[in-house]
Amino acid sequence: MHSLKIIIGDSDAGQRKELKKMLNAMGHVVVGEASNSLETLKILRRLTPDLAFITHNSTLRDGEHVAEIIEEEKLCAVILLVEPGYVGLYGRSENETMIPYLRKPVLAATLEPIVNIAVSRFREIIKLEEEINKLKDTIMTRKLVEKAKGLLMSHQGLSETEAFRRIQKQAMNKRTSIKSIAQAIILAYGA
């Protein structure tokens, strides 16, 4: 995996320094550090890193909440750093997200695999969401074209093929999408 831009959100400066040293040794760049949740989110939104490490401990109690915000808003991949006695709150239902976590003290041997998994998983989710959005747009376009064809057929007495060709031709002539032409036809007929 190529060099990643990483942010560390941990109230313990010593632990941030140690984690930064391990990440730098792996070839990654720590572009920001924060000691509290609010600061972490501000830095994240400003620097758009590839990965964030967020600590959940007695000082930074809302670490899980910050991790959820990062994941919900798709800001970057996230790994939760937890104390040895941590019992995760995730997995309560199948709709909840699963944020990977590492127990402190972080060991270099466990760090690299979880970084790779977290970033790969995040990228895959983004890719899948883009595909879903494309499919939704394709379905919407088809519905609009069908409706526009129906309007042309009923108002202008065209066959289905003729109606579709007219939509295609207008899209080419106006150098716009079939979807835009279909929407214009629907609007013109007030349907």
TrEMBL record:
<dbReference type="Pfam" id="PF03861">
    <property type="entry name" value="ANTAR"/>
</dbReference>
<dbReference type="GO" id="GO:0003723">
    <property type="term" value="F:RNA binding"/>
</dbReference>
<dbReference type="InterPro" id="IPR008327">
    <property type="entry name" value="Sig_transdc_resp-reg_antiterm"/>
</dbReference>
<protein>
    <recommendedName>
        <fullName>Stage 0 sporulation protein A homolog</fullName>
    </recommendedName>
</protein>
<feature type="domain" description="ANTAR">
    <location>
        <begin position="125"/>
        <end position="186"/>
    </location>
</feature>
<dbReference type="InterPro" id="IPR001789">
    <property type="entry name" value="Sig_transdc_resp-reg_receiver"/>
</dbReference>
<comment type="function">
    <text>May play the central regulatory role in sporulation. It may be an element of the effector pathway responsible for the activation of sporulation genes in response to nutritional stress. Spo0A may act in concert with spo0H (a sigma factor) to control the expression of some genes that are critical to the sporulation process.</text>
</comment>
<dbReference type="GO" id="GO:0000160">
    <property type="term" value="P:phosphorelay signal transduction system"/>
</dbReference>
<dbReference type="InterPro" id="IPR036388">
    <property type="entry name" value="WH-like_DNA-bd_sf"/>
</dbReference>
<feature type="domain" description="Response regulatory">
    <location>
        <begin position="5"/>
        <end position="119"/>
    </location>
</feature>
<dbReference type="InterPro" id="IPR005561">
    <property type="entry name" value="ANTAR"/>
</dbReference>
<dbReference type="InterPro" id="IPR011006">
    <property type="entry name" value="CheY-like_superfamily"/>
</dbReference>
